[in-house]
Amino acid sequence: ISKVIGKRKHSIDDLLTFMEKADLPIADDGTIIIYKALNYASNVDNNTFTDAHTGKVMQWVGAYVCMDEALVDPDRSKDCSNGLHVARRGYLSSFHCNVCVLAKVAPEDVIAVPKNDARKMRVSGYHIIARLSDEEYQLLLANKPITGLKTGAIILANAIAGHHTEKTHIIKIGGAHGSNISVTDLKEFLKVSLVYTPPKEPVTAIEDNHDNKDTPVSPKDIAKAKTSILTRREEVMHKANA
Fold it and tell me: Beta strand pairing status for 110-112 and 120-123?
C-alpha cells in the first residue's frame, strides 16, 4: 500500500481500524478477506449472482470484479457513494440479499474507508473465492462468526492459505450504475482441486458482541481446519499413488 497511499485520503491506520473491528484476518498472500452480499441472478443457475445495487453486474466464484479507480468516490465523508462496496460482518444485516460470498481485496485497491462507518469500504476490485452456505450466512446476519460451523472454519482456513478458486474471469465495470460491462475469460484452471466437505454440525452458541467489534475468529478452529485439510490431502495423494 506504500506505493499508493499518497493518492488515498484514508491512512493506513484507517484501513487497520476496519480490519481491527472485523472478524476476518489477513490472508497469507497479504490480501484482506471480506464479505460481499449479493443476489442470485434471475433465470440463471444458483452459481451466478448480481450486485445488490444495480442488479446488472453478473458475477460468480472465481470472478475478479473491478472498475477504474476514477469511478470510485474517494471522499471519506460519504458513507455511501460510487464504487464497489465490501463489508465486515457487522454490516451485512444492512443489506437485503439472499447470498453472501467470501472475497479477497488487495490493500492497494481500497479507495475509501468512511470516517463515520468503518464497517464497510469502497474498493476498485475484489476476487470472489467462495460462496457461503445459507447456514453460514444466517450466522453472519446474527453477527456471529462463521467458525461456529465446521464448514465455515474450513472455508476460512482455505481462504487464508490460498486454497481456493483462482481468478477465472475479469468482470470490469466501465461506466456509472453498472454500465459498460466487459467480461474477460482468463482460461485458467483451478490450482487446487481438493474439495472436502465435512459433515454439518449444529451452530454452537456464541455470545453476542456489544463493543462495536466483531468477535474474532478462533485461531484454534482455523488450526484444526488446516489439519483436516492436510490429512485429507494426504489421503487423496495416497490413493492417487496407489
Answer: antiparallel
